[in-house]
Write a structure and sequence with these properties.
mainly alpha, 67 residues, disordered C terminus
Length: 67
């Protein structure tokens, strides 16, 4: 019984840590971390207009949309 509880605890902890890590970064953030510029066509076009690509980097917070 203890092994089942331990295994379920490990699985839940792994799922939570993996799920929250992937929510934060977009393709442009990943490229900046690598010291490069994003090479997606939509991101390059948005960068020319001094904006971020809405397709690849959707707004995650509703408060940002109201601004």
């Amino acid at each position: 019984m203890k092994s089942i509880k331990l295994m379920s605890l490990i699985v839940c902890a792994f799922a939570l840590s993996f799920g929250t890590a992937n929510l934060q970064a977009g393709c442009c953030d990943d490229a900046k971390k690598a010291g490069k510029e994003c090479s997606h066509k939509c991101c390059v076009e948005a960068a020319k207009n001094k904006k971020t690509c809405e397709k690849c980097n959707p707004k995650s917070d509703k408060k940002e949309e109201k601004k």
